[in-house]
Design brief:
By secondary structure, the chain is mainly α. It has a single domain, classed as Hypothetical protein, domain 2 (Endonuclease III, domain 1). The chain is 53% helix and 2% strand. α2 (34-46) runs antiparallel to α7. The radius of gyration is 17 Å and the shape is globular. The relative contact order is 0.17.
Length: 214
């Protein structure tokens, strides 16, 4: 079937090839890589008040500016780095969002110091397994849920910023903690099959998955 003929979620059926590819290949796929999840955390926060298309087209700029989203590197960014970032047209030049990205990297390292990871911590809000919803129209999809509100409260308490319940739910959707593809979308079942082929450990970090599998 041609790419343009596939049934997609209402929001994913866009003429922009990059936007469509994001829907078709990434959105809703369970993420258990620390850098990748930190990237989504930063990008979802950066989107606040903007369109996702704007952020999507700046993603390469963010990867260059934020050291490929290595939390340990971003956590030590200082005033010179902030000035560099605020002058970089490849990202959203918003002081609060830049400061939040750096502060969130430091909060991730505090999780590491406490003996866990961002991956395992965020996935704990869905008991380590994706929540599969059966929405038939975009109007049924919530902006936030009890789980996203609990995540927001927890992350704020740990020093994370730009992590309101709506941003947290968008993160849960993009990182595959929930499968919110509409049931008529060809990706609704594909995402679940991919999770099944992953051995049912999509919500675990690589190290924890190896321990459980050993």
């Amino acid at each position: 079937m041609a790419e343009t003929e596939r049934q997609r979620c209402s929001w994913g059926d866009q003429p922009d090839p990059a936007y469509r590819a994001y829907h078709d290949l990434e959105w809703g796929v369970p993420v258990r890589d620390e850098r990748r999840l930190f990237e989504l955390l930063v990008l979802e926060g950066a989107q606040a008040g903007l369109s996702w298309s704007t952020i999507l087209h700046k993603r390469d700029g963010y990867r260059r500016a934020f050291a490929a989203f290595d939390p340990a590197t971003v956590a030590v960014f200082g005033p010179e780095d902030v000035a560099r970032l605020l002058a970089d047209p490849g990202i959203v030049r918003n002081r609060a969002k830049v400061a939040a990205a750096i502060g969130n990297a430091r909060a991730v390292l505090e999780l590491h110091g406490a003996g866990t990871t961002l991956v395992d911590h965020l996935w704990s809000f869905v008991d380590g397994r994706p929540v599969v919803n059966r929405f038939r129209s975009p109007g049924e999809i919530p902006a936030e849920t009890g789980a996203s509100r609990a995540m927001s409260r927890d992350l704020r308490r740990r020093g994370f910023r730009f992590v309101g319940p709506t941003i947290c739910y968008a993160l849960m959707q993009s990182a595959g903690l929930v499968d919110d593809h509409e049931v008529s979308c060809f990706r609704w079942s594909e995402v679940q099959r991919a999770d099944s082929l992953d051995g049912g450990q999509a919500g675990l970090s690589d190290g924890r998955a190896r321990r459980l599998g050993s």
